[in-house]
Amino acid sequence: MVVRPWILLLLSRAVAGLPVPSPAQLRYQSTDFVALIHFNMGTFAHNGDPCCDKTNWNVQAPYAAGKTSDAGTFNPKQLNTTQWMESIAALGANIAVLTAKHGCGFALWPTEATLPDGSPYGYNVGMPGAAIQYDVLQRFVDSAKSAGVGYGFYYSIMKNFYLCHNFSGKNSCMEEVLPRQRNVSEQDYIRIARQQVTELWTKYGNLSRIWVDSGLGGLGSLMDELQPQAAGTPKNPIDWCGTESGHPSRDVGSSDVWSTGHGYFGQADADEWVPKFCDPQLFEEHIWFWEPNLHVRSLSEMIPIYHDIVGRGMVMELAFSIDREGLVQKSHASVYGQLGAWVRNCYGSPLAATSGPGMAFTLTLEAGSQFDRIQLQEDIVLGQRVRNYTLEQSKGSGWHPLVRGSAIGRKRIHLLSATQVSERTQLRLRIENATRLPQIRQFAAFSPCQEVQEASDTGLGTGPPQSPTKRG
Ligand SMILES: *[C@@H]1O[C@H](CO)[C@@H](O)[C@H](O)[C@H]1NC(C)=O
Ligand SMILES: *[C@@H]1O[C@H](CO)[C@@H](O)[C@H](O)[C@H]1NC(C)=O
Ligand SMILES: *[C@@H]1O[C@H](CO)[C@@H](O)[C@H](O)[C@H]1NC(C)=O
Ligand SMILES: *[C@@H]1O[C@H](CO)[C@@H](O)[C@H](O)[C@H]1NC(C)=O
Ligand SMILES: *[C@@H]1O[C@H](CO)[C@@H](O)[C@H](O)[C@H]1NC(C)=O
Ligand SMILES: *[C@@H]1O[C@H](CO)[C@@H](O)[C@H](O)[C@H]1NC(C)=O
Fold first, then answer.
1. CA distance 417 to 155
2. Which of the listed residues 85, 228, 344, 417 has the most CB atoms within 10 Å of its CB?
3. How far is the CA of 79 from the centre of ligand 1 (A)?
4. Which ligand gives the minimal distance to the CA of 84?
5. One MF term in GO for this entry (predicted)?
6. Has residue 470 got a pLDDT over 60?
């Protein structure tokens, strides 16, 4: 009997612990897309973090109903969270996160927090003078539930311009307190933050994802206690890819990305499960809060972003910048819809696919078929087991290597040059090294994908007829 070296390796590691996702992390990684919805006072002030500063706090923007410091200025007249869900569903996102409170300090729900003198918080919907007299979060949660979408909140614990705390959590009113700012002590600040996150983490049911940004302000254990099933908490960590540009390989590095270990790439042999995510904007500009006259990325710009993020095992938390009416603008809705349709169309029906436990898998392609991409997935319930693999194509009686890789995990897409096979051909996934017997969820080959061209650039009536499709 021939004992193959990998069998010895598997046996030798069979007793070692192998990190696997918690139910919260598995839920988080079950979707390619999370909708990261930016909608708050910044929508009526200006983009940035915080969106409020000395230059715009007691100023009325030309388009706004009042000063940024005035709760009445947040006045989306057609606010419709059900309309948001149409784009979220069209994209194929299965979790949506809303900025319950961002850097200005404005709260999208009627918070019961009080200031040190016992008066109400004073910068939120539902207060006297606010244009919106209902709980925006509750509407969002109701719409998400009806759409079957998981939900969560963004609440920046460290920063709150209204309460004189800047991005690092430091008091930013050492020299001057502007009218309508409240200069609270550290102790009062944390008391108010604790009250507000307690409301967010108890009044709206189970959250799928919690976003706090920068520090936790000592509230991490409260989060674990109140929302044990949420991702993005100390118990269910996830890590950022290192850039908001949408192009992590270019801007951070093209190494393989692991769902284990911390940092931008994780580490293959770390003992903790840590899903990775990347958060690009839909705007070409680096803008989160809606502003007019910006440029929305086209489908052809989004496709390489999809491959660089989702195709390298990460979850894409794609920006939704709700406009001043409270809606997803048509031009945005159109790209979310196109991107979702493109993913379903491109990766929905493989030429050939297989799955199961093992170290080697083959696919058979019929003569005449054309392939240009391979998608690999491990069943991550069992952890990330593959360490090294080679994709090969049959050639005569041997095999010709197409690509080598290390990490597979939740999803790995390899784009290859398009190959038309003239006779029946086999593709092989050969796993050279693994910590345990790999469980492959999908090894699939696909034909080149069609990118449906947008109506605006069909060039009706001018020049030669254009092809209705192009490769993506
Ligand atoms: C909200 O949007 C949904 C979906 O587009 C639509 O069916 C509904 O009529 C809208 N509601 C209002 C009040 O405009
Ligand atoms: C925060 O405020 C402190 C004190 O005013 C200041 O030293 C620090 O530079 C500010 N940090 C940021 C990120 O604005
Ligand atoms: C704002 O509060 C901080 C901390 O309580 C205090 O040190 C600072 O002097 C106050 N700023 C002003 C302008 O009074
Ligand atoms: C909410 O999550 C908890 C675990 O944190 C679970 O026991 C409970 O069943 C969940 N509730 C719903 C309604 O899903
Ligand atoms: C195998 O994968 C490891 C990462 O797990 C990597 O460091 C190494 O270079 C790979 N070896 C080969 C031969 O590709
Ligand atoms: C196989 O993977 C293990 C675990 O990552 C590593 O220690 C070992 O060096 C790898 N072996 C080869 C031949 O790459």
1. 44
2. 85
3. 9
4. 1
5. alpha-L-fucosidase activity
6. no
**How confident is the model over 385-430, as pLDDT tens digits?**
999 999 999 998 999 999 999 999 999 999 999 999 999 999 999 9
> Domains in the chain, ordered, with CATH?
5-347 (3.20.20.80), 352-446 (2.60.120.260)
On whether the CB atoms of residues 197 and 215 are closer than 8 A, the answer is no
Q: Region 188-199: what's the mean pLDDT?
A: 98
Q: Is the peptide bond before 50 cis (omega within 30 degrees of 0)?
A: yes
Closest residue to atom 8 of ligand 6, CA basis: 433
CA distance 20 to 50: 37
| Residue 302 tokens, joined | 């989004």
Q: Give the span between the Cα atoms of 195 and 114, in whole angstroms.
A: 9
Which of 6, 359, 387 gets mutated to test ligand 6 (max ligand atoms within 8 A of its CB)? 387
Q: Which atom of ligand 6 is nearest to the CA of 435?
A: 4
Contacts of 198 (CB under 8 A, 6+ apart): 222, 226
- Of the CA atoms within 13 Å of residue 290, those in its CB half-sphere come to 23
Question: Which atom, in ligand 2's list, is nearest to the CA of 167?
Answer: 13
- 207 CA → ligand 4 middle, Å: 9
CB under 6 Å to ligand 6: residues? 268-269, 387-388, 433, 435
Long-range CB contacts for residues 177-185, cutoff 8 Å, separation at least 24: 178/54, 178/57, 178/58, 178/69, 179/58, 179/69, 180/57, 180/58, 180/67, 180/69, 180/70, 181/57, 181/69, 182/115, 182/122, 184/115, 184/116, 185/116
**Which residue do the tokens 């580490």 mark?**
267
Q: What is the pTM of this model?
A: 0.92
Average pLDDT score over residue span 204-209 = 98
Helices (H), 29-134: 81-91
